[in-house]
Amino acid sequence: MQREEVDHKTKILIVDDSRLSVDLLKQIIQPMGHEAIIAYDGITALKKVEDEKPDLILLDVMMPHVDGFQLCEKLKSDEKTRLIPIIMITALSDLADKVKGIEVGADDFINKPFNDTILFARIKSLLKTKYLNEELENAEMVITSLALSIEAKDAYAEGHCERLAIYSVALAEYLGFPEEYCRALKRGAILHDIGKIGIPDNILLKPGPLTDDEWKIMRLHPVIGEKICKPLRTLANAVQMIRHHHERWDGSGYPDGLKGEEIPITARILQVVDVYDALTTNRPYRTLLTEKDAIKELWSEAEKGWLDKELVGEFMKLLKKGIF
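Predicted structure:
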């Protein structure tokens, strides 16, 4: 059975202040087997989205109070609703209006008067894409759960991934990084050690020092992590962090011995905040350091050539602002 043949009636939200337009769209989509949900203004549409969780939205541009552009932008900027396909239906033919629609995240456009066959084809195509994206997100959630289960094995690591996500995103935002980099850093921070799922517990949880042979096995975890996450398109920007978060600025890290700016900038950010978190939390081999002592140690590691000095300096500025 193909994924688009779902066991529930697909819900399509029609948002238009014209009852005639709404009736026409209902007559088109209901014979397709879809359930029509109606909203005559943007405020009501937001409530319908929350209550009904539609699979697709047919959205008129010209509406009073909250127009189609504003509503689309709001829905596409919310993690809970950004994957809902939105087809903007408009009588406007001006190129600037279409550009504005693209900028606020519209997935497609249909001009009034519209062709039934074209509308049907575009609805079918966007629903298929939505289902595929949802499957990718579900797979990502499974991998994230696995990553957090590894953390749960070690009482000393509790909350480590979440803290790295907070620190790394804050540093990226402070440096003015684009939103896509911040999203990748959040994912990379949560998943950076997922490769440890392939490391035996007798090595992973060993209370004492590892032997040379045990270290060889432990150092495989970035490569294992990359193999786990690489097939998922949604994690494409995080995979480099997962593979390279144990590289060192001077080239003495692993698995590839990358040096300096050969190491992806996102991986270098993760390295800095990872070291800081390790210094400021209790570990089996020592108690946590004060922030002042942790900063000194962090800078010491940068002086040794292990970390990007410039990034360490920027992170220290951020710490002085007291936002954590």
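Summary: The longest helix spans residues 116-153.
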